[in-house]
Structure formats: structure tokens, C-alpha cells
Amino acid sequence: MTLRAPDRHRATAHRHTAPDEADAVALRAAWEERRRELERQRRRSTPEGPRRPAGTPRPALAALRLGLKLTGLWKRGIANALHVRLRTLRLSLPGLPEAFEGYRVLHLADPHFDAAPDLPAAILESVAGLEVDLCVCTGDFRATDHGPFTEARVLEPLAALRRTVRAADGFLATLGNHDCADMVPELDRLGYDVLLNQSRRVRRGGAEILVTGVDDVHRFYTPAAAGALGALEPASFGLVL
């Protein structure tokens, strides 16, 4: 997507003081402890309180899959899933700092890389060679929604994305409801800045915008997500992942 300012009115950027290294380590440790606890519970944590797991029972999913294969609709569905297209949006946003006029953001959401053998290649082909200002990946990197992270088929395309896309201001990521805490060190290793209910400053020509990333609030909600959003000042311009 490309960001544009519709008028000359500009908001004053608010500068957040970045936590020091010790604080950052402590915050991540606290996040990991709480996130693993929520993953073990197998109940959805939401702003309205705990909820039963959503979704279709696994026996019903197996029966549906068998029926689709017997009718030939499975192959058609896979073909549709592999028809990946890059969609370009131009957004006119009040308050966007002048220095960010025309700022280009590549947003990759819900890739579920291991859902079909040829899906990673189709996704990577759709973005190959792109030059953008910022790349953001907003989770659901894997198909399963529970259990430890062991899927190399998810890491390989994420590494390839870093090689094939040029993003001047880097690669940010958040976790989706299918993702687990085990994935964070792997994303770190690949060069993704994982926002765990946190904000990052992006600066251009003396101006800045804040990019805030939160956990999936319908499955892994904690007050830290509300805190991350509540810390944003009305006078600042921000993007929320």
C-alpha cells in the first residue's frame, strides 16, 4: 500500500523513550511466560474474558476434506489458493507527516505457508523483486493452530522473502492466532523485528510514524495489548498491525 496525505495539516510526532536492553529483555520474558500459559490453556483469551475454542471439530474437517476430494472440488480449491495476486492500494490519510508522502508498505497476511506444497512459491513469485519502504507480516504463518513449532516449510519462505524483497526500513512481524511463542526466536534469527504488544519508530526527514504490533486479541489477549494501544498519543501518526 502507498500512504498519502490529503491536506497540509500535519500532526506533531510524539517521541517515545525506547526501553533499555534490560527492560526489553524483561518485557519479552514476561510476554513469553504469559503467552505460553495461554497456549497451554487451549481457551481463547479475549477482551470480554475467556471463551471456548472456536472452529470446526477435527472429525468434521476430515469428513469435509474427504468429500471434497471425492467430488473433485479439492483440486479446484488448491488451484484457487495458488492463484496469488499482489493488490495495490493507495490510502489518503489525514495527519500523515509530509516526509512520508508516498510511503510504500508491503503487507503480507495469513500466508499459511505449509497449507499446500506450492503455496510458498506462489506467494514469493507475486512479490519477487519489489522495492518498498517497509514490509509488515501479520501472522498466521502456519496452517495448524496449536502445538510446538517444527515446520521448516514456514521458515524457508520467510527467509526467501527477506532475500527477494527490498525494504528500506526493514521487516516487521506480529503473530497470528495460528502462531506460537516458539516462532519468535526463529523470526528474530531471520531478521524480522517481532512486535509483541510494542511500538517501533520509523523516521524520515526529521519526522516519524509509530508502528504498533499486538497479539491476536481474539485468542491471545492480555492487558499488554490494550496498554500498547493506549500508549499512543493522539498527536502522533501511527499504523497498527
Strand content: 15-25%
Determine the structural class based on helices, strands and strand pairing.
Answer: alpha/beta
- The average pLDDT value, as a whole number, equals 88
SS field, number of helical segments: 7
Attribute tags:
241 residues, alpha/beta, 6-stranded mixed β-sheet, 13 strands, globular
Task: Give an overview in words.
The chain has helices at 21-41, 58-71, 73-81, 119-127, 152-164, 183-190, 223-230, and strands spanning 2-4, 44-46, 49-51, 90-92, 103-108, 131-132, 134-137, 166-167, 171-173, 193-194, 198-204, 207-213, 238-240. By secondary structure, the protein is α/β, with parallel strands linked by helices. The strands form 4 sheets. It has a 6-stranded mixed β-sheet, with helices on one face. A 3-stranded mixed β-sheet has the order 11-12-13. Helix 4 runs parallel beside helix 5 (152-164). Mean pLDDT is 88; it is low at 8-17.
Strands, helices and their partners?
Layout: E1 2-4, H1 21-41, E2 44-46, E3 49-51, H2 58-71, H3 73-81, E4 90-92, E5 103-108, H4 119-127, E6 131-132, E7 134-137, H5 152-164, E8 166-167, E9 171-173, H6 183-190, E10 193-194, E11 198-204, E12 207-213, H7 223-230, E13 238-240
